[in-house]
Amino acid sequence: MTAADAPLRERNAPNGFAPVYGIELLAEKPIRFDREAVRAEMARSLGRVATTPGAGDPNLFFCEDFPVVLKDATVCAQIACLAGSGASKPEANPQLDPLLQSRTISDPAVRVARSTHSLLLCDMMSRSLDHAQRRRILAAGLRAVLAHAEVDLVHMTPTQHYLDAAVTRERLDQDDQRGNPIWGFLNVRFFNLSNLPGEMVFDTLGLNALGLTDFQIHCHGLEPRQVAQLLYDLGTYAFEKGDVIVSGHTVQGIDGGKWKVQNETSMLEPKRVVLDLDPGPAYAAGKRHAGTKPPKKKWGWW
User: Fold this and answer.
1) Taking a C-beta distance cutoff of 8 angstroms, is the pair 193, 94 a contact?
2) Strand 49-51's sheet: what is its strand order?
3) Do the beta carbons of residue 248 and residue 260 sit within 8 Å?
4) 3-class secondary structure, 169
5) 8 A C-beta contact, residue 126 and residue 134
6) How far is the first Cα of the chain from the last one, in angstroms, to the nearest whole number?
7) Fewest 10 Å CB contacts: which of 2, 46, 75, 162?
8) CB atoms within 10 A of CB 3
9) Pairing mode, if any, of strands 215-220 and 273-278?
10) Nearest-10 Cα torsion for 302, 272, 265, 135
11) What span, in angstroms and rounded, lies between the C-alpha atoms of 163 and 183?
């Protein structure tokens, strides 16, 4: 954790932050795995990993090389695997419906409907860890379960999209993803504004959930794929470097110009403070509201 990250996480604690990061695994058949095999697989990436004695639910994996200092004790980060009861219900709010933003798979609604069995994988006792450590632990747990269980879909709940399980395992097994996992932890959403023809809103989802700051842009006249790629690149950069892009900075725009960024309240749900990109008068839509600040509270398509 960098010195810059710590106060930002404190400031953003309720600002979209996920104190427990949940990943829903879905399958047409019951999801079962050998606990020792999963533990050994996790240990190859994380060092010392222990499990709870005996059988039964929940399955807990203790990442002993990732200590967490509490007020009156020191514990370690954990991965929990909890039995579920099928896919979560569709979201009534279209801005929060993962089916609408799952563009890496075909027929997500059909595949989700067929998935009558689920398993919830989540981190525990990890909220104070650096975002990179949390992603590394979560990715190791996810990769291990996918290697030893029959899973069809992965629902990354904080980033609100479904991923193919086989593709996810393959991607997370790549060397760069083992060191700095981004696959699944970052999503770029895209919405056309039906009441304002030609206007589009894009945002990243996943950075605020881990204590950083998401990006958004409200624009018109730009090529959607290029805008989505720009936001994905900015999100990747933030996961690599931390919150080094802050309100008042500029970034390289897709038109070759410098686009200013500033703190704004997100246009899309979940409501949180994001870094809004201003593409200039030729492409900007809506009004910017300079000076928006994250709430000062303590812990508690494309």
Assistant:
1) no
2) 49-51, 59-69, 74-83, 117-124, 22-27, 153-156, 161-164
3) yes
4) helix
5) yes
6) 30
7) 2
8) 7
9) parallel
10) -60
11) 10
Distance from C-alpha of 260 to C-alpha of 252, rounded to nearest angstrom: 9
Rounded CA separation 161/301 (Å): 10
Q: Compute CA distances 114 → 27, 90, 153, 162, whole Å.
A: 8, 14, 10, 14
pLDDT of residue 77: 98
Which residue, chain included where needed, has tokens 């395992």? 169
- Residues 6 or more apart whose CB falls under 8 angstroms from that of 58 comprise 80, 81, 82, 83
b/e code 249-270 from CB counts within 10 Å (16+ = b): eebebeeeeebbbbbbebbbeb
| Contact between residue 157 and residue 24 where contact means Cβ atoms under 8 Å apart | yes
Radius of gyration of the chain (CA): 20
* 139: its two tokens: 């990715």
User: Model's pTM, two decimal places?
Assistant: 0.88
**Which tokens sit at 270?**
């979940």
Mention every residue, 6+ apart, whose C-beta is less than 8 A from residue 34. Answer: 148
User: Is the Cβ–Cβ distance between 78 and 278 less than 8 Å?
Assistant: no
Exposure pattern of 138-156 as b/e (b: 16+ CB <10 Å)?
bbbbbbbbbbbbebbbbbb
Q: How far is CA 112 from the centre of its chain?
A: 20
**Structure tokens of 24?**
């829903």
| Helix intervals (H) in the chain | 5-11, 35-46, 108-114, 131-148, 165-172, 175-179, 224-241
What mean pLDDT do residues 19-24 have?
A: 96
CA-to-CA dists, residue 211 to 107, 130, 238, 283, angstroms: 32, 8, 11, 30
User: How far apart are alpha carbons 222 and 232 in whole angstroms?
Assistant: 16
Q: What's the chain's length in residues? A: 302
How far apart are the C-alpha atoms of 156 and 162, rounded to whole Å? 6
